[in-house]
Amino acid sequence: MARRGAYAKGVAKREEILAAALEVIAREGYGRASVRELADAVGLSQAGLLHYFGTKEELFAAVLRKRDEIDLARFEERTGDVTAFEGLRQTIGRNADVPGLIQLYVRLSAEATDPTHPAHAFFTERTRTFRVFVASDIRRMQAEGTARTDIDAEQAAMLILASADGLQVQWLMDPTIDMAEHVSVLLRLLEPPPTPADA
After folding, report:
1. Do the beta carbons of residue 164 and residue 105 sit within 8 Å?
2. In this structure, are residues 180 and 89 in contact, taking their beta carbons and an 8 Å threshold?
């Protein structure tokens, strides 16, 4: 019983750390959000903080995983009236409000291309999940006649992910870029051409 209680407390503390880290990184930026600052935010030492995650890289990967969970929950609340495309547009649009999390995603995803990096498995699985989810939505839209049928759904999903990731890099270089609008342009290319009756 005591072990179960300790486990529950550990899970709750991890959630507290992730919530604080999301807030601090979004506000301060990835480069300025030190492990010490994150530890201070939840009343722990740096060693105490890393006890819950192992390494700084695993902590940051957990922060991004938590952000994805929040975005997915927001999307699922509106399932039925929001397609994966619209969910992506909305998520990209909100990203402009959290530049620190974009910095974290861009830097950590580049570092995690190394198979030995602690966050490599997270990004590999994230990419696979995104491609499956979006490709499935594209196939559904193709069946409904709302997406072009002359494109491969898996290839289109990969191009959408590559575009979204690349736009985040470009936005960090030039924050005047409207990421959501650029993604919208790409997604419109996947729509079927208007029929003569629609033109």
Report:
1. no
2. yes
Which parts of the chain sit beneath pLDDT 70? 1-7, 78-82, 195-199
Q: Distance between CA atoms of 161 and 156, rounded to whole angstroms?
A: 9
DSSP line for 98-120 = -HHHHHHHHHHHHHTTSTTSTTH
Indicate the average pLDDT of the chain: 86
Paired tokens of 157: 């999903």
Distance CA 57, CA 180 (A): 28
Q: In sequence order, which residues have a C-beta less than 8 Å from that of residue 24 and are 6 or more positions away?
A: 33, 37, 38, 41
In the chain, the number of structural domains is 1
Nearest to 84, CA basis, from 93, 75, 97: 75
Distance CA(126)–CA(123), nearest Å, equals: 5
CATH number for the domain including 183?
Answer: 1.10.357.10
Is the distance from CB of 159 to CB of 186 less than 8 angstroms?
yes
Tokens of 78: 């509106």
pTM over 0.90, yes/no? no
**CB within 8 Å of 9: residues ≥ 6 apart:** none
Determine, yes or no, domain membership for 194. no
Beta-carbon contacts of residue 169 (< 8 Å; ≥ 6 apart) = 106
Query: How many residues in the chain?
Result: 199
| pLDDT tens digits for range 10-54 | 788 899 999 999 988 888 777 777 888 888 888 899 888 888 988
